[in-house]
Amino acid sequence: MQRMHGRLLTTGSPREVRRSTTELGQLDTLTIQQNAELRARGAEVQASNFGAEAGLASMRAQNASTAGTISGFSSLLSAGSQFSDKWLKFQNEGVF
Question: Considering the entire predicted model, what is its pTM?
């Protein structure tokens, strides 16, 4: 009796070999299909994440622009206030 990978070569039938080969082929097909679906879902999630990141970047840019405008007006108000304080001080001291 001959043995190959732990099996007797004299047992089984060609029909059983074909059946098991067909089953393994179907299993391989299902595995490939599932892997493709998982990769596609991963790509969809990644695309969604990129979209969310883009939205956040737009919000940060808008907030930075608004902050810059507010900072500019704040500087103008501060300078105006300082000028007014000095003007009143000089008027009270009789400089003008």
Answer: 0.53
